[in-house]
TrEMBL record:
Its cofactor is a divalent metal cation. The keyword Nucleotide-binding does not apply. This is DDE Tnp4 domain-containing protein. PANTHER family: THAP DOMAIN PROTEIN. Residues 310-479 form the DDE Tnp4 domain. Keywords: Metal-binding.
Length: 680
C-alpha cells in the first residue's frame, strides 16, 4: 500500500518525485521565516524547498553587508516569524468543514480570497489550510449563508508573515475596487432594492435583460453591464450626465457615450423582441391580452376581433430657436412645446406598438395621426389589422370615423355633448360609460411609462432625435417585466359586461320623475337638514356594495374628496329633504372644477336598496354606474355616518400658501377719535 507524506510548509501531499527530505539548514529557515517548526528528516515538496533555497541564497549574498559595522543612523528592526492576534477563528482541521463542522471526504481548501471575505463579512479569521464544503463557496468567496453560519471556536489566531502580507494585499485590492466605482453593478454588493430604485428592475430582471443584449462591448472605463445600468439609471431618475459621472466615477463624456451605446444595443436586439406589430400576432393578442369584459362589450355575434385602445401621450421639450419647428411643436391644448408618440395597447395594458413621435400643431391631431398611420401602412399595420377589429379611442379621434369605416374597423368613442346642451342623454351617457370602462387602461399605460422620470421631464432639444427610441425602450421593458394593468376572471368579467349592457338599454326613471314634477326648480320645497337627523331608513352599504353600484373604483375614490369639501367645520353633512316625497334625498355638491357651480343630486331608495339616482352634471343621467357626486352622497350616508371613526380625507394645503384675496379691512380715518378736536 503506498504511503503519503505531507509537506511541512504547504500541507500538500506531493508524489515521490516531487518531495525531498528536509535538511538542517532548511529546517532553520522554515523556523525563522515561516514560523514552522519541523525536525530534520521531515518531508518538504520541491516548490517549498525552492523557496528555502532562494532565501538561503539571499542570505549568502548579503553576508558581507551584515558583517560590516552599522552606522549610528541605521537601526536593525527585527520581528518574530509569526504573531498571535486576538482574532476569533474557526477550526483548522482538514477532516471537518470550518463552517458547518461536517466531516469529509468532499471538502475543498479555503483560498485566500474566501478567507478575506470571511474576515470582512463576519470578522472571523479562517486559518490557512482550512477546508469547507463546496456549497459554501460562490465565485471563490464565502456566500452570505455560509458567513451567517460561521461560528468561531478560538479567541486567538496565529498568523505568519506571508499570511499577513496576503491578507493586507487582498484587502487593499478590495478597497481600491470600491473606490473605483461607487455603484457596482458587476459585483454582489447591491441588493434587489438598490437595483429597483436605480433602474426600475430587480436584480433578477436586470440579469435577464443582459442575456438579450449582445452588442455592448466592455471598455477600459466600464463593463457592458455597467453601460446598461448607466442608461437605465438615467431613464429612471432623470439625473444629468454630470451627476451620473459622480455616481459611477466616470467622466461626463464617458457617461454620454455609454448612454448612446446602450440605446443602440437595446434598439437593435431587445426592442424588436418585445414591441411592434411584428413581435406578436393577432391570435396572441386576442387570446392572451384581451379582457373578457371588453370582448363581451364590443364583440358581436360571438366573434373574436382584435380590440385595441389608442391614444397619444406627450413628451415635453424645450422651446426651439428654429421658428418653424417651434410653431410645429407647440401644442395649443397644453400651451407648451411637445411631441406626441401614439400608443397602441390591448385591453389588459400590453403595449402592441408605439408610433412616432409626431408634431403637436393642429395638423397633427390624434385623428390625423391615426389616418396617417393607416394610409402610409407604418410598421405594416394594415397587414396586422383586419376587418371588424375594434379601436377604442377618445373624442380626439372623431375625424377618423369615416376613414376607419371604409377599412371595416369599428370605432368605439365616448359621446359628444351637443351644442347648447348642458347634459348628455341617458343613452349617450350609458354608451360613454361602456367605452370608458375599457379605455382607461391606455391612460394608465401612459402613467406607467412616465415612472421612468426621464420621459416626464422637459427634454433638451439635443435629445429630440432619440425620443422615439427612449419611449420604445421603456415600453418594451414594461411589456417584458411589468404585470398586466387590467385583469379579471372570465366569469366575473362576463357578469359585469352583462350587467352593463342590460343597464345601458334602460331609461333613467328618476330623471323623468324629477323633470316632470319640477323637483330641481326653486318653487319645489326642499329644506336643509343634517343627514344625522333624517333618512334613518337609508340603506346601510358596504364599500363592495357601493362599488357594485358605481361599477368601478374611481368614483369611490373621488367620493372621499367630495365628502371632505361638503362637510362644514362642525362636521355636519347637509342634505335636502322634502315632506312631499318619501324615501328620497337630495344634495348640492360643489363642482371640483368651477367654484360657481353646484350640482343637484337626487337619490331614491326603498326596502334597504338604492333604486335610482340622478345628477344635474354632464354625465349624471346615466344608469350604468353613478357619477362621483351621486357616489359621494351614497358613500357618506350609507357607510361613513354609521362608523364610529370618520375616515381621514385628503390633506388641505391651502393654509401653507399665501392668498392675495385675503385683504385687510379698510378703516375710515374720519371715524378715529384722534382726529376729533374739542373747543375749550
Amino acid at each position: 500500500m503506498p504511503k503519503f507524506y505531507q509537506c511541512v510548509l504547504c500541507k500538500t501531499y506531493p508524489k515521490g518525485n516531487h518531495r525531498q527530505t528536509l535538511s538542517k539548514i532548511y529546517s532553520k529557515i522554515l523556523q525563522q521565516n515561516f514560523g514552522v517548526f519541523a525536525s530534520q528528516g521531515s518531508t518538504i515538496c520541491n516548490k517549498c524547498r525552492f523557496k528555502c533555497y532562494i532565501i538561503s541564497k539571499e542570505k549568502r549574498v548579503n553576508t558581507a553587508e551584515t558583517l560590516r559595522p552599522p552606522n549610528q543612523s541605521e537601526q536593525i528592526l527585527g520581528s518574530p516569524p509569526f504573531v498571535h492576534l486576538p482574532l476569533c477563528s474557526t477550526i483548522s482541521s482538514h477532516a471537518y468543514c470550518c463552517v458547518c463542522k461536517r466531516p469529509g471526504p468532499k471538502l475543498i481548501v479555503v483560498k485566500t480570497h474566501a478567507r478575506v471575505s470571511a474576515y470582512i463579512g463576519a470578522e472571523i479569521f479562517v486559518p490557512e489550510g482550512s477546508r469547507c464544503c463546496p456549497n459554501h463557496i460562490q465565485n471563490e468567496v464565502f456566500n452570505e449563508e455560509a458567513i451567517s453560519k460561521m461560528i468561531p471556536v478560538k479567541v486567538q489566531s496565529t498568523i505568519n508573515k506571508s499570511g499577513i502580507m496576503d491578507m493586507l494585499s487582498l484587502m487593499r485590492d478590495e478597497l481600491m475596487k470600491q473606490r473605483k466605482t461607487r455603484l457596482d453593478f458587476d459585483g454582489d454588493s447591491m441588493t434587489d432594492l438598490d437595483y429597483a430604485t436605480l433602474t426600475g428592475l430587480s436584480k433578477y430582471q436586470f440579469d435577464e435583460l443582459m442575456t438579450d443584449i449582445h452588442d455592448v462591448r466592455t471598455s477600459k472605463s466600464r463593463t457592458s453591464r455597467t453601460c446598461i445600468a448607466i442608461f437605465m439609471t438615467k431613464m429612471r431618475s432623470s439625473l444629468s450626465n454630470r451627476m451620473l459621472s459622480v455616481l459611477f466615477n466616470m467622466t461626463k463624456y464617458q457617461i454620454r457615450r455609454s448612454v448612446m451605446s446602450a440605446r443602440k444595443a437595446l434598439m437593435a436586439s431587445f426592442v424588436p423582441q418585445n414591441l411592434g406589430f411584428q413581435h406578436i400576432d393577432r391570435d396572441a393578442v386576442i387570446n392572451d391580452h384581451t379582457r373578457p369584459l371588453a370582448r363581451e362589450l364590443f364583440a358581436n355575434d360571438g366573434k373574436s376581433p382584435a380590440i385595441l385602445v389608442l391614444d397619444g401621450t406627450y413628451i415635453y421639450i424645450q422651446k426651439s430657436g428654429n421658428f418653424q419647428f417651434q410653431r410645429r411643436s407647440y401644442s395649443l391644448h397644453k400651451n407648451r412645446p411637445l411631441v406626441k408618440p401614439m400608443m397602441v395597447v390591448t385591453t389588459t395594458g400590453y403595449i402592441v406598438a408605439v408610433l412616432g413621435p409626431y408634431l403637436a400643431d393642429s395638423k397633427n391631431s390624434d385623428a390625423r395621426i391615426l389616418n396617417h398611420m393607416l394610409a402610409t401602412n407604418v410598421h405594416e399595420i394594415k397587414e396586422w389589422v383586419q376587418e371588424e377589429d375594434v379601436f377604442v379611442v377618445d373624442r380626439g379621434f372623431r375625424d377618423s370615423a369615416e376613414f376607419l369605416e371604409d377599412l371595416g374597423i369599428t370605432m368605439e368613442m365616448p359621446s359628444f355633448l351637443k351644442r347648447r346642451d348642458k347634459q348628455l342623454s341617458t343613452e349617450e351617457s350609458n354608451n360613454s360609460r361602456l367605452v370608458t370602462k375599457v379605455r382607461w387602461v391606455v391612460e394608465s399605460v401612459n402613467g406607467r411609462i412616465k415612472t421612468w422620470r426621464y420621459l416626464d421631464k422637459v427634454l433638451p432639444n439635443s435629445q429630440i432625435p432619440y425620443i422615439g427610441d427612449y419611449v420604445q425602450i421603456i415600453c418594451a421593458l414594461c411589456n417584458k417585466f411589468r404585470p398586466p394593468l387590467s385583469t379579471g376572471t372570465t366569469a366575473e368579467d362576463i357578469n359585469i359586461a352583462s350587467k352593463m349592457k342590460y343597464l345601458s338599454r334602460q331609461n333613467n326613471m328618476l330623471k323623468m320623475k324629477v323633470e316632470q314634477e319640477g323637483m330641481e326648480k326653486r318653487s319645489f320645497r326642499w329644506k336643509k337638514v343634517d343627514c344625522a337627523d333624517v333618512a334613518t331608513n337609508f340603506p346601510h352599504l358596504s364599500e363592495e356594495e357601493i362599488r357594485n353600484i358605481t361599477i368601478g373604483v374611481y368614483q369611490v375614490k373621488m367620493a372621499k374628496s367630495y365628502v371632505q369639501e361638503h362637510l362644514d367645520e362642525e362636521g355636519t353633512y347637509e342634505i335636502l329633504v322634502s315632506d312631499q316625497i318619501e324615501n328620497m334625498v337630495s344634495a348640492q355638491i360643489q363642482s371640483r372644477h368651477t367654484s360657481a357651480k353646484k350640482y343637484m343630486c337626487f337619490i331614491q331608495y326603498e326596502d334597504g336598496a338604492i333604486t335610482g339616482w340622478y345628477c344635474k352634471c354632464k354625465i349624471g343621467a346615466r344608469v350604468v354606474g353613478a357619477c362621483g357626486h351621486i357616489t359621494s352622497v351614497i358613500w357618506y350616508m350609507g357607510n361613513v355616518r354609521h362608523q364610529s371613526e370618520r375616515p381621514s380625507g385628503v390633506r388641505n394645503w391651502t393654509s401653507y400658501i399665501e392668498d392675495a384675496s385675503n385683504m385687510p379691512d379698510v378703516i375710515d380715518g374720519s371715524d378715529s377719535n384722534d382726529d376729533v378736536t374739542t373747543e375749550e
